[in-house]
Write a structure and sequence with these properties.
The chain is built from 4 helices and 28 strands. The protein has helices at about 25-30, 40-45, 115, 425-445, and strands at about 15-20, 55-65, 75-85, 100-105, 125-130, 155-165, 165-175, 185-195, 195-200, 205-210, 210-215, 220-225, 230-240, 245, 250-255, 265-270, 280-290, 290-300, 305-310, 315, 325-330, 340-345, 350-355, 360-365, 365-370, 375-380, 395-400, 405-415. About 30% of the residues are buried. By secondary structure, it is mostly beta strands. It is elongated.
Amino acid sequence: MGRGHGEGAWPEKAKVKVKAATGPWLGARRCGCCWRGSAWCRRGRQKRGPPRSPPPLPCALLEAGGGRGALPGAVTQRPAVLRLGGGAPGDPPEPGVDPNVTFDVSDPWGPLERIWGPPWVPPTCELSPTPPHSGSAPWARALHPDGRSPPEMGGSWWLASLGTPSYGVTVLLQGQPGPPGATAVTAALAVLTRTPEVRGRPGGAVELHCAFAAPPGPFALEWRHQHQGAGRVLLAYDSATARAPRATPGAELLLGAPGGDGDGATAVTLRLPRLDVAHEGTYFCSVFLPHGHAQQLLQLHVLEPPKVTLSPRPLVVAPGAAAELRCHVSGFYPLDVAVTWTRRAAGSGTSAPAGAAVAETWSSGHRQGPNGTYSRSVGARLVPAQPQHHGDVYACVVTHPALSAPLRATVRLRLAGSEGPALEDALGLFLVAFVLCGLVRWLSPAPPRPEDHPKKSQ
């Protein structure tokens, strides 16, 4: 995982909102599922068997140096295996994996267990040796006032990055004495997220979850945003002073208590209360401790579905004349929009590509609005209308990443002077006439009845 990123201009200093990340689920965990000491609770505990260690996890060990003749900065890759808690006896790794190195991982807080936990999704795993240091960020320098590393920083250190589509964790591992044949390591810092990829619409709020597990002590936090080569620090926090030395307007830090994140971790979630297309990109949640630092990457995708209009309406064409359809697609983000034309012949129940019914098509360029969304127009010039074209239905079909299904806008071609309305038109006219007749009768006053007239006196 990358550590260095280009500095952008420092944003204007603003007050950051620090909120406690709590919720009803936290109270439920504290209360428990049953009364302590009850027979039902004791029976539930007795049914549980001893915890079974998860199977070994294949991992790629990345090391500097590519041997003789290798280019400077070359990296070699060797197969390795991670065994949580020493692994289960007799459990081999996945078929075809022949590890060169085996790491027995001790996880005091439990963030790594989610990688193995259900539902099982094969995770990505990379491991590389790293020198321990607390980082060069200005807000991390106070962790080492004398500029020296503590004595316990000696030995071997590795940085492991594991991830699935719904969970990611970066762990700083410290080498420990252990039995021969395997490398014993202990998690000294784990930075995790339950939202590796986040999707949001402009104008709405979004939360980028991040948490860390580490021994009690001071820490520093940095949230950085990077997009299209430009990067900037959105927020920085120093736990020793409980202040944010860097913050941008609108960035909020949801700071939770240690162990309150559900897995022994401290929440340091970033909240963007009003999402904008400029917020799209990669976010780095970096945690700095006196004995090292680690970071977790998150991807934020901003999606806005398009609006589609088709003109002209109604489409009435003189025999032998050519008509032009215009499909206007507006208010979408990102740019990835596709527009196609389909045609359903009169009396047919299926649509097909417009094909020979379209003489030519054209498309405008993308136009970006003040809110960052895009608009685009696409046109189709139809072949000269013939009697057999009367009743054909043309559709503009739009696909976009923000849509779960394509959008369709349709119009029916009417040939001027054609005899008799189509069946759909006849039914529509009948319904309209029926409604109008009922409305007129309801609004018209009732004729007077004979008994309502007063009798003349004789």
